[in-house]
Fold this sequence. Notes:
Layout: H1 2-16, E1 28-33, E2 41-45, E3 52-54, H2 55-58, H3 66-71, H4 74-85, E4 97-98, E5 108-112, H5 116-122, E6 131-135, E7 140-141, E8 156-157, E9 160-166, E10 182-189, E11 192-193, H6 194-198, H7 206-209, E12 215-223, E13 234-239, E14 242-248, H8 256-263, E15 274-276, E16 298-303, E17 307-312
Keywords: Hydrolase, Metal-binding
InterPro entries: FAH (IPR051121), Fumarylacetoacetase-like_C (IPR011234), Fumarylacetoacetase_C_sf (IPR036663)
Protein name: Fumarylacetoacetate hydrolase domain-containing protein 2B isoform a
Amino acid sequence: MLVSGRRRLLTALLQAQKWPFQPSRDMRLVQFQAPHLAGPHMGLESGNGGGVIDLNAFDPTLPKTMTQFLEQGEATLSVAKRALAAQLPVLPRSEVTFLAPVTRPDKVVCVGMNYVDHCKEQNVPVPKEPIIFSKFASAIVGPYDEIVLPPESQEVDWEVELAVVIGKKGKRINATDAMAHVAGFTVAHDVSARDWQVRRNGKQWLLGKTFDTFCPLGPALVTKDSVTDPHNLKICCRVNGEVVQSSNTNQMVFKTEELIAWVSRFVTFYPGDIILTGTPPGVGAFRKPPVFLKKGDEVQCEIEELGIIVNKVV
């Protein structure tokens, strides 16, 4: 698994060099494992595509999971900032296994039809209020883990998405205060079984969206102060090296602040909660003829400044 993960990563990084993206050198929080370590650890990715600094080695009192890390707020973030400033040893990327930045959130909130160009692709009006659904947390896998095709579906599709990670608890949050509740951003793949999303289960989207492995995340939680503008980032998906989605987060109908304000009317947000903010055009279901993922495919989801996730379909 580790060897194949390294190979996929190398392929992805070579592909990524074709993009004129400037790699971020800022706060990139990760959850990772290594053969010499017991259980998951918190770390810092040393730049987009770089090695990992072990935060728990720097300060053994730090939590070892992202959710607990975020729950402690500024106290843990300040330790991470000190670690970033210190010239600490970096574990080579080939020696670690990246986990999803958040593995067991209280909730995964998803937003449908949230890109203007994706609405045009379907010839449907732009929504007047956010369309909200969800995935179960059990769908989450790491940035280089495999996507497992379920035998129940013949129409598994791709969707690259910007994911927001909540850092502070809140209910009925004003849009003007919303960014104070955001820890940062990461890359998500909202894998979708279209047959179950649009025809089965009474046309409720949940089951089609939440098969195991249907939510790859990563590679890092890039803190909000390290992202130039989350609503002006290039966003891209490739299947077997071919670009299938290419847009910009400036096409989002409802921005992060509006989504947090809207959803928090109904539910309380907790540290570690994830919001998948919608996908741009280019999904397989709307191609003529439709194209769906098959065994052996490799999907790369990339967002400017945040990084790239690479998932083999099995």
